[in-house]
Amino acid sequence: MKNTSGDQASSRTSGLTGTFGEKVPGSKDLLGANQSFNVHATRPLVIFSKIAGGFAIVAGTLVLLGWWFDVEVLKSLHPGFVTMKANAALCFIFSGLSLLFFHYAQKKGVVLFFAHLLAWLVALTGVLTILEYAFSANFGIDELLVSETGPALETFSPGRMALNTAVGFVLAGLALVTANLKSKQYIFISQVTALVLAFISMVPLIGYIYGVSSFYQYSSFTSMAVHTAITFFILAVGIFCCRPDTALLSVFTKNSLGGYMARRLMPLLLLIPFVLVWLRVAAETPGFYNSLFGLQLISSLITSIFIFLIWKVAKSINLLETDLRESANELAHLNERFSLAAKAAHFGVWDWDVEKNEILWDDRMYELYGVKRDEVKGVEEAWLKGLHPDDLLVQEQEMPKVLSGEIDYNTEFRVVWPDGRIRYLKTFGQIVRDKNGNPARMTGISYDITERKESEVALRKSEERFRTTMDNMIEGCQLVGFDWKYLYINKMAEKHNKRPKEEMLGRKMTDVWPGIDQTEVYQLEMKCMEERSIQH
Fold first, then answer.
1. Which residue, 406, 405, 408, is CA-closest to 439?
2. What stretch of H or E contains 48?
3. How deeply is 342 buried, as exposed, middle or buried, from its count of CB atoms within 10 A (0-12, 13-18, 19+)?
């Protein structure tokens, strides 16, 4: 066990003084210190990521069916829109499968291999299409699945996907490959790449929503289809969300002040581009104002929106900080009362972080082991040197059973003080488990029971002397309890009774001697019992 007492322990906390001589964090510390992840934030993101993979598979499959059975609505959604090309639909199917495989794949295996293979095929298709545009070449991938006959709307070459679509698939493939690598740097690259893909797809999506063709059409190249933009956006967000507790996304999912702010700001910020473009297009098209005025209006709106958001978040944070401060004060009062109760009862309090294998003692624990805090290097040294060697082995054998939940930690052991004196300690411990049922930490108390143990030893010795004396008396002697059951019979009484004492001990006198309740002896014994008097 590692030592976390003294300066090492106190350097990790600040605020109000607690039981262990450390400090309970105040509200600001609580906001910054709790770095666990918000389950209500991470779980929906993972679910959405899986749904996004399924959506990409369904979208690509429907488009391929539209090409194979010549269903125009599946190919373009609208007669006036450009079609999603067949190889783009296939890439979406590969991307969706790759994303789902990553969710359900083990660290190694066939599923993971195919996930990587599909992601690389998607990226390769995008790279080859870009090279086709760059060198006016045809590698035979545009119409590999189906042939596009007749003049195609806003299409540079039959069956060829848009240039920005090809770039999108390169980004999607790279994001998928790096998403499942162990290194946080690769996951960071994956999330950044997914965000770039989301931006690339959001621009043509806004163009379709507000009828701005320059957002999705570049020169004479093939335009990005509307359902291509939609599928790209959903897929990009799904890839971004597949690792919600790592890299960029961890800022949003942590139970921290930053995560609290981000979760409230981001949904509103995502709406800003759509709202501002709509305002500008809706007002500029009829000629209400010129482009320069529109730019000034948008700047003013952005400033106003951010001022509102800052005010809203600041208000929420103030309420949160007030609640946390009240909770911290209440915790401090409870901690103080517990400290006073522990001191009054002469309890020593300890806390063991099972995961880190670190244990923390209060000052009373050092006293129970007969040492001072500055006389030992830490808790581990005090514990190992102080615990009696015979009891150390027992503790090591019991602890696995305690951690597994087979037994409670309720034990007694001996402590050898530096001066050679032996003290007896009684210890209770309570285990706190994580969501998976594994032991996370154990907190407990210890107190000195040496006087009780010494009294028990003295009592046993006294009983032994008394029994020895009684056993060797020449007179018969027997002890009967107030319930008329035999408690003790010495050797001479056993001889007088002419029956083994084992037949009598624990049995009532009237059962051993039927009819004795009618005798004068029994009446005298009853008087002795009732009056607590000596009878002959």
1. 405
2. helix 39-68
3. middle
Task: Give per-residue pLDDT as tens, 473-525.
Answer: 878 888 889 899 988 888 888 888 888 988 889 999 888 889 988 998 889 98
Share of the chain above pLDDT 70, in %: 78
What is the identity of the amino acid at 63?
Answer: V
CA separation for the pair 211, 88 (Å, rounded)? 23
Q: Are 146 and 159 in contact (CB under 8 A)?
A: yes
CB 59 within 8 A of CB 228: no
Rounded Cα distance between 292 and 269, Å, is: 24
The Cα–Cα gap between 511 and 525 comes to: 16
Report the distance separating Cα 485 and Cα 98, nearest Å. 81
- What is the CA angle 162-168-170, rounded to 5? 110
pLDDT, one tens digit per residue, over 282-293 is 655 555 555 556
Q: Report the distance separating Cα 42 and Cα 285, nearest Å.
A: 42
Cα–Cα distances in angstroms (integers) from residue 239 to residues 99, 233, 263, 467, in the given order: 7, 10, 18, 82
Closest C-alpha among 122, 213, 218, 222 to residue 172: 122
Cα(65)–Cα(86) distance, integer angstroms? 9
Position 56 scores a pLDDT of 96
Query: Which pLDDT value is given to residue 184?
Result: 81
Rounded Cα distance, 285 and 332, in Å: 63
Residue with structure tokens 């948008």?
Answer: 298
